[in-house]
Design brief:
The chain is of the alpha+beta class. The chain has two domains: 2-200, Gyrase A, domain 2 (2-Layer Sandwich), CATH 3.30.1360; 204-335, Beta Barrel (Elongation Factor Tu (Ef-tu), domain 3), CATH 2.40.30.110. It has eight helices and 17 strands. The protein has helices spanning 2-14, 34-41, 88-99, 123-130, 177-188, 198-208, 243-251, 313-318; strands at residues 17-20, 25-30, 52-59, 65-75, 78-83, 105-108, 113-119, 145-150, 153-158, 167-173, 194-195, 257-264, 276-279, 282-293, 298-306, 321-325, 328-335. The strands form three sheets. The protein has a six-stranded mixed beta sheet. Strands 12-15-14-13-16-17 form a six-stranded antiparallel barrel.
């Protein structure tokens, strides 16, 4: 099991993998007011140029998290909203209730489309073998979304990642999914393509510090505390639900409660969940989600630090960090920025 997990993880970092993510919740939102509705729900500016995917949060009026998802603008009046499977009904219900009498319509297309993720440094090479569309970095940049041909199928190809590498999400009509899968496998054979599962997904996203709603963040967390302030467009016209509360929290000064990435310096112990995290011997939080960082060389996790003082880079650097595992303290390092590729150079390559 360990060897297979590591092999899949390393293939994503150094080669190319294919991952079935068809369980994700998918909603088509259409109508002349669709963009306005989604922009009011979303912290980020999602009613942008057509052919663009945007990562965003949905908040309540108190500015705590209601959903963590992506919105892809397909045309001026057609969007695709994708969320985790566990938030399926919550996202759909919140979206429908917010429409009111505006001209917007929601269709649950979860079962209509398979979702295959082609990820890794060699993913572009494999994809280019499959389509007549130019997928070079210049023609198909990060966050681009285009309909492309693959064999006898048409697929929505979105350049995005949840693993921290160059990669693409392929939304394929369900009846053509096997055909496209087999084409990808055949083309990927010369590049060493491997299938990868959710265990690899967990370790890869944890090295990058990517959040998982319902696991390491939830509706008790504020968007700033969760480290997702980069998704907040306070100045966008019309604002968004929770905007005033976010602005007030930002104006109040440095945060004393923040999500922090933790990496054990000893490669042997493992992290799972709920291990107590200490700074200078004092408990300041617990591991909300953990995995093993095969690239970083140790167990890695996310913890919500509640410090009673500003949680800054200096606060992290000045402390001696440890994690209690099975009654023993193990040294660790703590970081606000991702420990893997903090400048996002690999995903934009």
């Amino acid at each position: 099991f360990w060897a297979q997990w590591r092999t899949e993880h390393e293939a994503a970092r150094n080669g190319v993998i294919l991952m079935d993510m068809s369980f994700m919740s998918k909603f088509r939102v259409q109508g002349r007011d669709a963009g306005v509705v989604l922009d009011q729900l979303s912290t980020n500016a999602v009613d942008d140029a057509p052919g663009t995917i945007t990562y965003t949060q949905w908040l309540n009026e108190a500015a705590t998290l209601e959903a963590d998802l992506t919105v892809t603008k397909l045309t001026h009046d057609s969007f695709l909203v994708v969320a985790t499977d566990t938030a399926h009904r919550h996202v759909e219900t919140r979206l429908r209730r917010h429409i009111g009498d505006r001209h917007a319509f929601v269709t649950d297309v979860t079962s209509a489309y398979a979702l295959l993720n082609l990820q890794g440094p060699k993913s572009r090479d494999v994809l280019q073998l499959l389509t007549s569309t130019d997928v070079s970095n210049e023609a198909f940049p990060f966050r681009a979304a285009r309909d492309i041909d693959i064999g006898f199928a048409r697929a929505l190809c979105v350049r995005i990642t949840y693993l921290g590498e160059l990669g693409y999400e392929l939304y394929i009509p369900a009846e053509q999914a096997v055909h496209v899968h087999d084409r990808i496998v055949d083309a990927g054979a010369t590049h060493g393509l491997l299938h990868a599962g959710l265990k690899a997904l967990s370790s890869l996203r944890m090295e990058k510090g990517y959040r998982d709603y319902g696991h390491d963040i939830d509706n008790t967390d504020g968007v700033l505390e969760a480290g997702l302030g980069f998704t907040v467009a306070l100045d966008k016209p019309g604002g968004f639900i929770g905007r005033d509360a976010v602005a007030a929290r930002r104006a109040a000064g440095p945060l004393t409660r923040r999500i922090v990435q933790i990496l054990l310096t000893d490669p042997e112990p493992l992290l799972f969940h709920a291990e107590v995290v200490r700074r200078n011997g004092v408990a300041v939080g617990y591991v909300r989600a953990g995995s093993y960082g095969h690239t970083l060389g140790g167990a890695v996790g996310l913890t919500m630090v509640e410090a009673g003082e500003p949680v800054t880079a200096a606060y992290l650097a000045d402390g001696n960090w440890s994690v209690e595992i099975a009654g023993r303290e193990h040294p660790a390092v703590a970081s606000l920025s991702p420990l893997y590729d903090p400048r996002n150079e690999r995903i934009r390559a």
